[in-house]
Design a protein that fits this description.
Elements: E1 2-7, H1 8-13, H2 28-36, E2 41-45, E3 50-55, H3 66-69, E4 75-85, E5 88-99, H4 107-110
Parallel strand pairs: 3-5
Antiparallel strand pairs: 1-2, 1-4, 2-3, 4-5
Length: 123
């Protein structure tokens, strides 16, 4: 499967905006912070399906591991074992066939941090 390594908290919660604003280069820094803080990594496929990553090759865990942090916001082609339970999709990544780096360069549209994610100053 091919998809973008995403920050699942921001993608599902909507805290930083809609799905189009929490992917790609506009959300890269936040994706790093969330993964480093323990938020699980997901793989968002081209058809909009999200697979929660249960295991990643070379990583001790699926969040906060340096190996996983290196692929935040990257488009990956991965081979592995796929599962679905209770409406949630999972992948155990056995091999990363291709790492295309960040291909969704949307920071030009959204900025480094989307403006709606910056709190208004209190007077």
């Amino acid at each position: 499967m091919t998809g973008e390594a995403i920050d699942t908290w921001c993608y599902f919660s909507g805290v930083m905006g809609g799905p189009e604003a929490v992917v790609g280069s506009a959300h890269h820094t936040c994706a790093l912070w969330c993964s480093a803080g323990g938020i699980p990594v997901g793989l968002l496929t081209e058809d909009g399906t999200v697979y929660m990553v249960l295991k990643y090759p070379g990583a001790a865990g699926v969040a906060s591991d340096e190996t996983v942090l290196k692929v935040a916001s990257h488009t990956l082609t991965a081979d592995g074992m796929f599962y679905e339970r209770d409406g949630i999709n999972y992948i155990v990544v056995e091999e990363v066939v291709a790492d295309l780096d960040i291909t969704n360069a949307n920071h030009g549209d959204w900025g480094v941090v989307p403006g709606f994610a910056i709190p208004e100053p209190k007077e």
